[in-house]
Amino acid sequence: MLAERITDAVAYHGEGPVWSPRWGGLRWVDMLAGDVLSLAPDGSIGRRNVGSIAAALRPRRGGGAVIGVERGFALEDPSGAITTLEPLWTHHRVRMNEGACDPDGRFYCGSMAYDRKPGAGSVHRLDPDGSVHVAVEGTTISNGLDWCPDGSLAYFNDTESYRVDAFDYDTDAGLTGRRPFAVIDPGDGRADGLTVDTDGGVWVALNTGGAVHRYGPTGTLDAVVEVPVRKVTACTFGGERLDELFITTSREDLEPEDEPAAGSLFRAMVGVAGQPVREYAG
Fold first, then answer.
1. 256: number of CA atoms within 13 Å, CB side?
2. What's the total number of domains in the chain?
3. I need a labelling partner for 76 at 20 to 30 A (CA). Which of 36, 99, 153, 278 fits?
4. Does a structural domain hold residue 224?
5. How far apart are CA 24 and CA 228, in angstroms?
6. % of the chain surpassing 90 pLDDT
7. Nearest-5° Cα angle at 200, 262 to 108
8. Has this prediction a pTM greater than 0.90?
């Protein structure tokens, strides 16, 4: 399968696409610019700055959004007003990078060091009451995170491991039993963002690999979407039937004349539907 380009190169480092009927469609981030982008029905692009970093976002059940920002979390209310919560750290060595909500309405966002120091990151969980907990420690580049349809398993990418991992999930115990789910050949790229379809297939964006891979529930590669730029960052299902795979890309560290389509949004029809977005309950 080949993805089609549906926007110009609108992002320097596009990431974290999310489809929500509550928002009227797709949002994603231009992460290193601190901007949230939105795709209007006519194809035009909205842009809003939320800070120095816009790492990830999800809709809130009461309207608005929860957002991972450079050193923690921010909340957008239904009117669009944004409140940045107390930072989780005060230094500038580490930033948030990618996140998602669990089946119980808690928002997770993982961090990474700016210099990519091994083990310097963690995955933090924001509960509906505003409390924050460390869910996973010792990560390097915390990336894609999503849950299987029945909520019993979560899938996670620590990009530098060249692996997709699985966790058991339980409301009280959280993420436990981490183990390898699929191994990424370094020649295929680096595991970045991911999403899980209604059949339990795990779609993984391969940064530097120019593709999205689908791994079946047993971890076997069974589909490939080719993207005509190398830096593929994340993917999500959207559209009225949730059967369109939207794919973000980056032009981080590229020269202006390199890969003119890098930073664009792409779309592929892959013959399967995704799950409705899980919302933050706070």
1. 0
2. 1
3. 153
4. yes
5. 28
6. 99
7. 65
8. yes
Rounded-to-integer distance, Cα 87 and Cα 77, Å: 19
Residues 148-194 have pLDDT tens digits of 999 999 999 999 999 999 999 999 999 999 999 999 999 999 999 99
Which residues are tagged catalytic?
Answer: 192
CA–CA gap between residue 99 and residue 265 (Å, rounded): 19
Q: What is the pLDDT of residue 157?
A: 98
The segments of the chain whose pLDDT lies below 70 read none
Whole domain around residue 72: which residue ranges? 4-269
Provide the H-helix boundaries in 161-277.
none
DSSP 31-68: GGGTEEEEE-TTS-EEEEE-SS-EEEEEEBTTSSEEEE
User: How many Å apart are CA 35 and CA 47, to the nearest integer?
Assistant: 6
Contact 156, 136 (CB under 8 A): yes
Amino acid occupying residue 250: S
- Write down how long the chain is: 282
Eight-state DSSP code of residue 105: S
Cα–Cα distance for residue pair 122/174, rounded to 1 Å: 15
CATH code (residue 56): 2.120.10.30
